[in-house]
Amino acid sequence: MRKRRPTIIDVADRAGVSKSTAARALAGGENILPETRGRVLTAAQAVGYEPNHLAVGMRSGRSGMLGLVIPDIANPFWAEVARGAQDRAAEVGVSLLVFSSDWDPQKEENHLRALRRARVDGAIVNPVSDTLDDLDRFGLPFVLIGSSAERFADVSSVGSNITQAVTLGLDHLVAKGHQAPVLIVGPKSRLARTRFLNAVNRHCIERDVDPAPLLIVDGEYTLEGGREAMLQVLDRPHFGHVCVFAANDMMAIGAMLAVRERGLSCPEDVSILGFDGIPSGAFTFPGLTTIAKPGRDIGARAVESLFDEIEGRPEHGRVYMPCRLIDRGSLADLSREPRQMVG
Amino acid sequence: MRKRRPTIIDVADRAGVSKSTAARALAGGENILPETRGRVLTAAQAVGYEPNHLAVGMRSGRSGMLGLVIPDIANPFWAEVARGAQDRAAEVGVSLLVFSSDWDPQKEENHLRALRRARVDGAIVNPVSDTLDDLDRFGLPFVLIGSSAERFADVSSVGSNITQAVTLGLDHLVAKGHQAPVLIVGPKSRLARTRFLNAVNRHCIERDVDPAPLLIVDGEYTLEGGREAMLQVLDRPHFGHVCVFAANDMMAIGAMLAVRERGLSCPEDVSILGFDGIPSGAFTFPGLTTIAKPGRDIGARAVESLFDEIEGRPEHGRVYMPCRLIDRGSLADLSREPRQMVG
DNA sequence: GCGGAGCATGGGAACGTTACCATGCCACAT
DNA sequence: ATGTGGCATGGTAACGTTCCCATGCTCCGC
C-alpha cells in the first residue's frame, strides 16, 4: 500500500494555517508575516511536501514542460542538441520531453500529438514534414531547429551558420596552401547539399575565385557514401596532393578509409576537411580536422527562443549560430612547400 | 490572443450530450449507443479535441510520464539506452522526461526532485549516489540501470551480462588462435574493473586455464587512458603477436592509435578486442572488433520492468541482457598459422 | 473616538478530467 | 397490471493548486 503524497493542505494543517496562507508562504509572495512563513516552510519540510506540477499546470496553464522532437537521439549531433536544450531548460526548472522521429512524418505527427496532450508550454522541432500543417495545428509556441527548418520563412528557427562555416573552412585550406578542394557533398535531393554548394560559390566569388572548375562528387551522407565518393576521386587521373572538403564528418571519415584502402595516406597524399564536429572524429588516425556545428549552443538557443515565443515576444527569424574549426591533423601544411602551378 | 483549447465539455455540447457521456464515448467504454458514440467522436474531431493529460493525471493518479536519469545523453551508450526506453514507452503512449546527471550526485538529486514534482509514474535511474536515500525519498516505482546499479541488492535493475560478454570475447580470441590476452582495464577505484576481472577469472577457471599469468594494465576509461596503457605494453619486452582485450571501446581505440604511433599495425602485429559496441568503433581502420552492450535493449527492458513495478508486480532482481560480438577486423586470425609455443 | 487605510489571513471557485451514483426508460417475468 | 432488472445517460464530487475576494484586525489621522 503506497501512502498518499502530502499536499499543500497537509502542510497548512501542520502549520496551523489555511491553504491560502500556506500557498502564499510557499510562493514567496507578499503580505505574509515572516514568522508565519517560517512555520509553513518548516511544516513543508517536515511532511516532505513536493508541489504537484500537474495541479499547478492545470490551474496556471503552465505545465513547466517543453517538447523536443529530433530525428534520432542516438545520433551524436542530435544528442548534443538535446543536451544543450536540457541544460538550458534545467536552469529555470523546466523539464524536457524528448522524442525521436526517425525522419518519419508519421512518427513526427504522433509525437506532436503526444506533446499537445501533455500540454507542454512549447516545442522545439526539427521538421520532417514538408508542410507546417501539423505544427500549425499544434496551436502552441514552437521553434524549429536544424537545416530543414530553413524551408519555412517567418518562423522562429535556430541553426548553424553554413556560410560562416564554409568561409572558415575554405580560408583555412588556403592558409594551409591548398587550392581548389574537391567537394564531397550529399545527394541532389537534399536541401543541405544546395545550401552547402551555394555557400561555397558565394565564398569563391567574394574571394575573387572562379568556383566553376571545382570538382563536385555526390554520395549518401554516410560512411559508405564518403568512401565510394573518395574512391571515385582517387580513380580519376589526378596529379599531386589531393584536398577534399566533405559536407559531413561521416563522409569525411569514409573518405579517409578509402584513402588508406588505396594504399595512400592522409594527410601526406590526401588532405581531408570534415563538417559537423562529431566527437568520434578524434578516433581516426590522423584525427579528423573539421568544422564543428555548435550542437549544444543550438539546443540552448532554441530553448531561449522558445521562451521568447512563449512569453509573447516572438522574433520570427532565423538565428545562425557560428561554427568553429577543430584542427586535428587530417590536413597537410603545404604553405611552406613550393607551390604547384595549375593550368 | 491565443484561443482556449477545446475541452470535453465543448465536445459534449456539440454532440448534444452530457460530459459524462462524452467521456464514456471517448474512453471507448461500455454502455453506450453506437450512434451516440459516433456523434461524440465526430464532434471531437470537429472541434479538434485533445485530452488534457494534466487533468487526466490529476484525476486518475497516472501522469503517463516516466523519468529517465542517465549520466549524459551525449554519450553514445547512454543515448542508445535512452532511445530504447523512448521507443518502448512510445508504444504504449507514455512520454519520457530525460535528464543528464553528469555523474554528479547533486544534479541527480535535483533531477529526481523535478521528477517527483512532475508526478511521473516511475523512473529509470543510473544511480550516482552511493546511497539510495534520494531514491527512497522518491516514493515512486523505479528501476536502476547500468553497472553502478549492482551495488544495490533487492532492487529491480537492468544491465548487461558481463560474464556472458567476457566468455564470448575470450572464446572468440581462442578461436582466432590467440592465447593469454593482455587486459587493459579501468582504474582500481572503479567497480566495473573488479567485475570485469572477476568475469575473466571465472571464465579461465571454467576453461581450465590459470588466470594468474595474464598481464593486467591500468588506465582511465578514455582514449588517452587506452593509448598510455598500450604504449606501456608495447614498451615492455615482448615477443610475437600481441593480443589485447580492452574493457572499454574508448580505451581500445586509444590502444589502436598507440599501435600505429609505434609504427606497428593492427591487426598484423597487434590484435585488439574492445567492449561496448559504440558505433564509432566502425570509424577506425581497421574497424574495431568489439563486444556490444545492448544499450537499446537495456533501455527497453528497463521500461518493461518499470511497468511491472508500477503495476505492483515487482521482480526486485537484476536482469542481465546478453551482449553480442561485432567482428570488424581488429583481430588477426592466427588459427591457421603455426602455433607459437609459450613457456 | 471613530472611520478608513492597509495588512495578514481565510474561504471558495475554477482548471479538465474521471468515477460513482442517480435517474429515467423499456422489456420482461410474475 | 406491476415489480424488477438492465441499459443509456445525466449530475456531481474529487484530484491539488492558484487566484480573487471577503473578513477581521491594527494603526493612524481627523
UniProtKB/TrEMBL annotation, chains A, B:
Q: Which PANTHER family match?
A: HTH-TYPE TRANSCRIPTIONAL REGULATOR GALS (PTHR30146:SF109), LACI-RELATED TRANSCRIPTIONAL REPRESSOR (PTHR30146)
* Species this protein is from: Devosia subaequoris
Q: Which UniProt keywords apply?
A: DNA-binding, Transcription, Transcription regulation
Name one molecular function that GO assigns to this entry: DNA-binding transcription factor activity
Instruction: State the superkingdom.
Output: Bacteria
Occurrences of domain HTH lacI-type (ranges): 6-60
The protein's name is LacI family transcriptional regulator
Under the heading InterPro entries, the entry gives: HTH_LacI, LacI/GalR-like_sensor, Lambda_DNA-bd_dom_sf, Peripla_BP_I
User: Which Pfam families does the entry mention?
Assistant: LacI (PF00356), Peripla_BP_3 (PF13377)
